[in-house]
Each structure stands twice: as C-alpha cells, then as structure tokens.
Write a structure and sequence with these properties.
The chain has strands at 2-7, 10-13, 18-26, 33-38, 45-50, 58-59, 67-72, 77-82, 91-97, 100-101, 105-110. The protein is an all-beta fold and 111 residues long. Helix content is 0%, strand content 54%.
C-alpha cells in the first residue's frame, strides 16, 4: 500500500507562489498521482495529475497556466508549483494515489 505525506502549505498574499510536495512510500511503482483541494464550504475537487512514468500532466481549467505539477521519481515525490495565487485557491490540498489520500496541507491566500 502507498503512504502519502504532503507539505509546503502556508499563508501567502494574492499573486504569490507556493510549492507543495507529496512524498510517497510503499508500493509506488507506476502510480498516477493527483492533487485535489477542498475549499471552505466546498466539495473536494481535482486540481492536477501526472503519471509516474509518462509525465503527461493534466489540469483543471481553473488552474491551467498558473499551476505546474512535476515529479522526481528518484525521491518518490510529486510537486505542485502554484503561481499567481488567488484568494479562491484557499483550500486544503490533498495528494492522492492508488485510492489512498494524504492528510492534506492548508493553503491560505489573502487578498
């Protein structure tokens, strides 16, 4: 089974940047890894995803052009670079792989 640990969240002003990390351990071979988020009073939504060996990332329309997902296979880690952040990006960000969720990391964007 896969275990996931997110990090990198925090408080940032609108227009700023953050980089989230998701470190995977356990059975990580050839897994697709996705980022989701859940804002206050909202349902959890898909943000971005990447195949472990392929590298063809895909994004939600709301973050295209601002967020970039990447991975370092040697470190079993997936990153989410978030630029031009908006207050509506405020959410708990979760990593998901093989049906397993991480514990989440809080991102707060102030206006």
């Amino acid at each position: 089974q896969v275990q996931l640990v997110e990090s990198g969240g925090g408080l940032v002003q609108a227009g700023g940047s953050l980089r989230l990390s998701c470190a995977a351990s356990g059975r990580t071979f050839s897994i697709v890894m996705d980022w989701y988020r859940q804002g206050p009073g909202k349902e959890r939504e898909f943000v971005a995803g990447i195949t472990w060996s392929g590298g063809s990332p895909y994004y939600a329309d709301s973050v295209k052009g601002r967020f970039t997902i990447s991975r370092d296979n040697a470190k079993n880690t997936v990153y989410l670079q978030m630029n031009s952040l908006k207050p509506e990006d405020t959410a708990i960000y979760y990593c998901k792989a093989s049906g397993v969720w991480g514990q989440g990391t809080q991102v707060t964007v102030s206006s």
